[in-house]
Amino acid sequence: MKNLIKYMFIMSVFAGVVSCEDFLDPIDENRLDFEFVGETPAAAEGVLLQGYSRLIDQFTFDEAATDDAVNNQLDNDFKRIAKGELSAQFNPTSRWRNYESVLWVNKFLQIINAGEIVWNTDEEINEMFYMRMKGEALALRALHHFYILQAHAGYGTSGQLLGVPYIKGFIESDGDFNLPRLSFEDTVEAIMADFDEALTLLPTVYSDNQSDVNPIYEDYDFNKYKVANGSAINLRISGKIVSALKARLALFAASPAFLNDQGYYNMAATDASEVLNTIGGVSGLVPNGLEFYLDSDGYTGGEMIWRGSEQNPNATIEKRVFPPSVNGSGEINPTQNLVDAFPMQSGFPATEANGYNPQDPYTNRDPRLAKFVVLNGDNFGGGTINTGVGGGIDRRDSIPEFSTTTGYYLKKLLRPDVRLNDDGSETTQRHYDVFFRYTELFLIFAEAANEVGGPDQQINGMTAREVIGAIRQRAGLAQPDAYLASITTKQDMRELIRNERRLELSFEGHRFWDLRRWGLSLIESAEGVNINGTNYSYDQVEERKYPDFATYMPIPNDETLKFPALEQNSGW
């Protein structure tokens, strides 16, 4: 960690401010130091904006390290760890570098707490700028610590369940980085404390509507309020986002592989329900949220709690993932395991339901299957995709590192209106980084509420059964939902909720982490399908070779070598 500090200031701090008019004229380079930043609002805000680096979006594709997908690139890092290369020296899921973002926000807090920056000559506006940006910094510090905790918490060599070091100050390059890990629960509580303090400073939402002003700002002049907290900054972290993140953290802490704690389950359900009730509870489930990635309405029509800014039209993801016959690299291949997880259209599990035919496996299935996965014979990306015998370059294993390895290609997250033309020209479309959407929050509530009191435990006007029913109805499953009605126990509802989470959040970077927090097997082999006319056969595609202790991922080896106070997780 220490070596990051030596160079990151010169390399990065002004990236957020070089476009500002204040910096168009040459200045004495000797002023480009922390003293200058501490006196210059634009430069100081540039430090804060570094805290928005390393946010986790939906394009990680770490599903290739799970039973949900195979990556067809032979040197893909997630393929490598899935096949047995995971170690403290090689861990592509590590988030230890998020400490760099932590140090940036700590530097900003040091600057802002010195009280030398004047954000605005108006006293009220200046005060609101201070409150809001301090709240942002605290929330971002908490979030980055959560990312690190999620990736590196575990039972140490001492046998204690450990969290990670919690850094609350800026550490100079010659400072002491030999910091011990807190206990797991102490880390969770430290993150919660920062989130809670942020909530005392942040607007619930950034808005130009006076009705959206929350109590902490209601005594300020509204026209001045809009200068500091108006809709122009509505992609920054807000009070509503913090409340949703608290629910995510509480569910993680409560999970079986960690505290398995009813108090944290209750906290997760309560925090989630309070945010969900601001959109009408269960009735607020967004109708087009299932395919939020298809057009601008999906991103702005109410499904997003938090997303990034609009990207320039591009085809970057489609080039990686489209099937080869439509000029993609076919990189992410859903598994038969995942396909089997989609129920029948009746709502009953496919492999257990009357009417399921393994020689006609896609008939009368959950409509989400056809929305998320390219099936044999689908028209997608401007062409018909055939993955069976006679399918040309789209056929399974036809061309290494281009054709599917499982018999399936990915459809979810891709813009089907992108075209990668044979002549090299492209029809590009807009994409967005998504950090949190309401469907995840509904699923957090359902999981937590069920663990608190079962399928029909009511918390703030909602139950797990009602939420799962609304999600499955939106998916297009037959109504009334006879399978959901047959669920009576907490255990059976738990299995259904986990499966719905697997489907609804597929390929958004959740499965890898869910398997671990649930304490489920990591070594279920990835399976695929071979299609020859009307004959379907199924086989193992790729083994999963994780050690028993991989539920808890390692601290980077070089960090434990440099800093003896940093205890490694057991087994690594």
UniProtKB/TrEMBL annotation:
Signal peptide: none annotated. It is found in: Cell outer membrane. Residues 298-572 form the RagB/SusD domain. InterPro entries: SusD-like_N, SusD_RagB_dom, TPR-like_helical_dom_sf. Keywords: Cell outer membrane, Membrane, Signal. One of its GO terms (cellular component) is cell outer membrane. The keyword Signal applies. Residues 57-207 form the SusD-like N-terminal domain. It comes from the Bacteria. Belongs to the SusD family. This is RagB/SusD family nutrient uptake outer membrane protein.
